[in-house]
Amino acid sequence: MASKASTELPKAGRTAAKSKADVDGNGHLQTIGGYLIKRLQDYGVRDVFGIPGDFVLGFYGMLEESPLRVIGATREDCAGYAADAYARVHGLGAVCVTYCVGGLSLCNSIAGAFAEKSPVVVISGAPGMAERRNDPLLHHKVRDFNTQLQVFEKITVASASLDDPLTAFREIDRCLEAAVRYKRPVYLELPRDRVKSRALYPHTPAQLASQSDAESLKAAVGEATERLASAKQPVVIAGVEIHRFGLQKQVLKLAESLNIPMCSTLLGKSVVAESHPLYLGVYEGAMGRESVREYVESSDCVVLLGAFMTDINLGIFTAHLDPAKCVYATSEQLRVGHHYFRDVQLPDFLKGLGAAGLKPRKKPTLPEREDRFGEAPEASAPVTIASLFNHVDSILEDRMVVIADVGDSLFAASDLTIRKQTEFISPAYYTSMGFAIPAAIGVQTANAELRPLVLVGDGAFQMTCLELSTSVRHGFNPIVVVLNNKGYTTERFLQEGPFNDILNWNYHRLPDLLGAGWGFEVRNVGELQQAMQAALAHQDAFSILNVHLEPLDVSPALRRLAERMSKQL
To answer: pLDDT digit string (tens) for 101-113?
Structure first.
């Protein structure tokens, strides 16, 4: 099982003079760079992803001398994806790049982390304060020296330039605390002549715990309890925040104690073990299975916990949930029916529901789990989306994390049965193609006992595939399944055209280029079975399966989604 995301802030010291974090091993005042490294360690960060550059080389030197491990990537956006996935497994991630050419390349992956609430600390080098005085045209500069800081202010929850030794420690603490509290990225810009600057004044890290308003919490729990007590067919829909805040056990305990069936959103998939008898499946409106949609939409009390109401989660708004029958609780708002409650923390609300004294319901009668992929065809039959995912579903193991990239690899994967909680990762809201390959590096860096099974279309694979060289360098062993349908199949269903076609590669020959790994070309079911068996056996390096599919062979979920979206163009 993946590690639970951290929900607690580190303890703060209470000293009248310098705190221990401000002082190095020799009793000297700490440098800004050293303090940042120390605080990352305090929050449990063990690894930093990134690419060095001249404006951040001084800090990279400090990283190399510290206990933190540096994981170099081939591209900055890939380093960001890896740090994002690391945060989803470990609780907090970090990425370090140079000024503008590095930082601005990182923006897309950090925007995705912000959208999907993944706490990543972005550390960027910058020109020194002394060399800026005459405003010279230094390399990498765009417009003015604050451009990159202003860009990241839009895609992070907190940001700071560590240009003043008097405030740098406090700004580091403020940003790191914000990342953990709000589960979103933060940005720290470190001028290269401030890396070894020392703090001039004592500093003690703050300890600010979020608290619920007692009266508001009591009223919200009371009203939600009344609805659950009188409901004939309640259901819980758990979303991505249950992952991010480490609340999986609390949600499962609540559902089990009351015998309430559970669903997840697509972004929240694997919030509970999907073999659990109370688990219905992924609710995603008309894009999801009909039995799940009917059960949820006929419920008289839908309890949405930590769920984002995004277009993809709602099946491009084909979901029909009556707000009057919903209890909607996230870290940002709480609504019971049409009543809003301010200043109520999601963990407190869950705890309150669990302690409300509700009686267990009779064991519910749930719809039978239909055969989602059909029976396996003959070995000589060409591979289809259905037969591919039928086989993938049959080989999933407890220590395997499914990472699905954007496209039919994601929509078809929604019907896979994830054996353990928090073992499915995808960019199912921001939907940025190219996420999965670098994300696999982040997962195995965070937890070496997990083995990623990467499901990626050929279009998305071509964007970030060379990050497999980082897997080779660090001895990681993901299994990569490339859905080779010769282009962008999702877009083909929206609007046909040659712009959806891409050059067909010999994907299974990539190990020849990288000098490691195992490649398999798959055209029929028998070859698929043999290749997957061999990939599972090869533990020493990555394996890649080049699975040939018909260009218009798609999953039922994608067909329903594309039909809905095409009507809106």
So the answer is: 999 999 999 999 9
- Distant-in-sequence, close-in-space partners of 21: CB < 8 Å, separation ≥ 6: 13, 30, 35, 38, 39, 42, 203, 205
Residue 342 covered by a domain: yes
- Statement: the pTM of the whole predicted model exceeds 0.90: yes
How many other C-beta atoms lie within 10 A of the C-beta of residue 311? 16
β-bridge pairing 326-329 and 334-336:
antiparallel
Tokens for 309?
Answer: 């109401």
Contact 455, 402 (CB under 8 A): yes
What is the span of the domain harbouring residue 183? 20-191
Q: How far apart are the first and last CA of the chain?
A: 41
R_g of the chain, CA atoms, integer Å: 25
Residue 289, pLDDT above cutoff 50: yes
Q: What is the mean pLDDT of the chain?
A: 90
Both tokens assigned to 129: 């304060």
At 320, the pLDDT band (50, 70, 90 cuts) reads confident
Dig out the tokens for 299 from the structure: 């419920």
Q: Rounded to 5 degrees, what are φ and ψ at 120?
A: -125, 130
Query: In Å, what is the CA distance from 13 to each residue of 5, 363, 525?
Result: 23, 50, 61
Same domain, 242 and 174: no
Domain stops at, among 339, 354, 369: 354
pLDDT over threshold 70, residue 284: yes
pLDDT band at residue 14 using 50, 70 and 90 as cut-offs: very low
Number of compact structural domains in the chain: 3
